Structures are given as C-alpha cells and as structure tokens.
Amino acid sequence: MPELPEVEVVRAGLEPAVSHATVVAVTVHDERALTRHDGGGADFETALTGRVVEGAARRGKFLWLPLAPRDGAAPDEAVVGHLGMSGQLLLRAPGAPAERHERVRLDIQHPSHGELAVVFADQRTFGSLAVDRLIPTEDAAPGGRGTHAASVPSQVAHIARDPLDPAFSERGFRAALARKDSAIKRVLLDQTVASGIGNIYADEALWASRIHPQTTARMLSARAAGRLLAEIRAVLEKALAEGGTSFDAQYVNVNGQAGYFAHSLNAYGRTGAPCPRCGRPIVRVSFMNRSSHFCPHCQKAPRGA
Q1: How far apart are CA 75 and CA 275, in angstroms?
Q2: For residue 216, which of 304, 89, 139 has the smallest C-alpha distance?
C-alpha cells in the first residue's frame, strides 16, 4: 500500500496541474471507485462538473482537492482520495486512450496548462474517490501538506497528523506511546497515533533506531522514543527525496514513473540478506497478516518475546 512518501509524491505532482483548474467533464467507468462517496456515479459527476479545484492537499495516506464553492464563498467541499493497495492518479493528455484498470477520469481546463485529464486507475479496486465536506481542524492549524486552510475532509478528520507535518505534536506522540501496551510496530501502524507510516517505513525506522518491533510501546524510554521519531522522519524524508518505494508497477507517480527508494532499504524485504550494520542475516516474521523484517542482533528482542 502506498505510504506517506508515495502519496506525497503524487500530491506534489498533481498540485501544479490541478490548482485553479476547472473540471469540464467527469466519467465514471466503475462505481466501485466511489465506495466512500455518498451518492452514485451520476451524483459524483454532477457534484464535480463545472467546479474549480483550489489545490492539492494531503494528510497521511489521504489526498484531497479543495473545491471552490459555486457561490464564491470559502471552500467547503473537496474531492478526497485514498489509493488503497494499487490506486494511481495519473496526468494524461486530453483524449488519451483509457488506462488499464481506469475507474474514473476528470477532464480539466487549466488557465496556464490548457486541457488535461486526471485519471484514477486501480487494479485491485480498494482505492476510492468521493466528494466530501470540509470541517475545521481541532487544533486550528492547516489541515495538511499543501493547504493553508484550517480544514480537513470529514472522512480524514480521525486521522492523526503525520510526523512531517509542522503541526505534529512530538509531546502528544511520546504520550501516546507511554499509554500503549501494544508492540511498538503495531502502534506505528495505528493511523490515529501518527499517520502515513505503513509496514515498509515502520520496519526501516525501527531498524535505524535499533528497536525490536515487538517491544512494548510504553516500555520505551523518553530517549528511545525521541530517537525513534527522529528516525521515522529521516526515513520518510529520504524516501520522499527518492520518489517513494516501488516494488512493482502498482505504485507510480502522476507521470507513471516508479520511485527508487527500494534500493535504499536496510531491513524491509531483505530476508536473509546481511544487515548493513552488523552483517548478520535480516529475518522475517509474520505480523498482523503481514511481515516484520529486522536484525535480531541489532534489534534485541524484549524479555519474554
């Protein structure tokens, strides 16, 4: 599943193309892509056609495109999207042939770039688009990356801020860890604690901070929690700089290009390979219907694990 770096790469690619563009036509090929939308395909098309997109914003793994209201007031709705396991948002020339697994197409007119098409393609159909209302943020800070408005789609309001968000609370993160009796890996995947971190970057951050994934979160010292947060931010920033992680054709940027952070991974997906730090083999264990990858020498197991 795309995580924060991959979704941010998509957001940054969309932003210059969609900001201040008018949606001139909407084509819904498959209503399974609208599972989060309150109405069906016809309602989605009606709600979007003729609307002006204000920009492109993101919190964690969610994207949204704020929509200028028809009466000229402040934006109160947005197109909110989640890529799921295999969703892609692609920029294409007007009239371009349908993409494989294309579900929804928005034809837009940009004041500088002219006509473009925004295509939502999704092989496994776990992703979604919806028109959703914007609500005020609880802390009165901007809703996420790419927006100055203190608002967020209602479907995203329960998602915590991500570690790269200027409004992310380090004190709140440490306090949340101190309350959790769960394994730290499980806590890092909890999007209500810190958003945008998935399996890949949790494994990478835990490896970098020398913390075993089964360590109970509340047992981490303040120093260890601070080190972990610093490593989370470092790995997310590095992955973002390298265009995200692509293991197959399912994650690509808006131009269909893959990221190359997979070449920089230290633990995730490297079962049996030597640990870059100590040379012992990286191991893989089952965890929450997925896998954890770590170095049992560098990341000492907690007592009783």
Answers
A1: 49
A2: 304
User: For residues 203 and 232, what is the distance between their CA atoms, to the nearest angstrom?
Assistant: 10
Average pLDDT rounded to a whole number, residues 31-46: 95
pLDDT of residue 261: 72
pLDDT of res. 19 = 97
13 with 253: CB under 8 angstroms?
A: yes
Q: What is the DSSP letter of 302?
A: P
For residue 264, the model assigns a pLDDT of 83
Domain with CATH 1.10.8.50 in the chain: 170-294
Strand partners, 89: 120
Give the architecture-level CATH label for domain 4-153. Answer: Alpha-Beta Barrel (3.20)
Q: How far apart are the first and last CA of the chain?
A: 28
Active site positions, annotated: 2-3, 61, 290
- The C-alpha atoms of residue 304 and residue 301 are separated, in whole angstroms, by 8
Domain 170-294 CATH class label:
mainly alpha
- pLDDT score recorded for residue 249: 52
| This model's pTM is above 0.90 | yes
pLDDT tier, 304 (very low <50, low <70, confident <90, very high otherwise): low
